[in-house]
Amino acid sequence: MTTPSHELSGVRYVVDDVAAAVRFYTTHLGFSLRTDPAPAFADVVRGPLRLLLSGPASSGARATPEGSGAPGRNRVHLVVGDLDAEIDRLRAAGLSFLGDVVAGPGGRQILLTDPAGNLVELFEPAPR
């Protein structure tokens, strides 16, 4: 089920290969394809999150102005019910993670990358 577009929150990721990114998010992370993928662009949806996947030929892939901040820390944050089970499932599918599980007062998390190197954080909230 998708949410009406006026209720979606969008995040743009620049990707090298739109088809590979669509496969990654729909196969492994529970997103649904919202538009037919084209070489330049596609978007996928999970709950209220619309992820815009912009390939090299898209307008969204134009250079970010200099001085706009250091890359690498921004990421999509996906809440999961059982982090260990998700890690096992994704490793069985051949995916690898950046580092180990990190635990804090709010919960546990681990990072992986999509095919273009964009970060995805899987987060399991601490029991309340």
Itemize the secondary structure elements and their pairings:
Elements: E1 9-14, H1 18-28, E2 32-33, E3 41-46, E4 49-54, E5 75-79, H2 83-92, E6 97-104, E7 107-113, E8 119-125
Parallel strand pairs: 1-4, 5-8
Antiparallel strand pairs: 2-3, 3-4, 6-7, 7-8
Organism: Streptosporangium longisporum
Domain VOC: 7-125
Protein name: VOC family protein
Task: Give a summary of the structure in a few sentences.
This protein has helices at about 20-30, 85-90; strands spanning about 10-15, 30-35, 40-45, 50-55, 75-80, 95-105, 105-115, 120-125. It is α/β, with parallel strands linked by helices and about 130 residues long. It comes from Streptosporangium longisporum.
Structure description:
This is VOC family protein. The protein is of the alpha/beta class. The protein contains two helices and eight strands. The strands form two sheets. A four-stranded mixed sheet has the order 1-4-3-2, covered by helices on one side. It has a four-stranded mixed sheet with strand order 5-8-7-6, with helices on one face. A hairpin with a 5-residue loop joins β7 (107-113) and β8. It starts with 8 loop residues before the first strand and ends with a strand. Mean pLDDT is 83; it is low at 68-72.
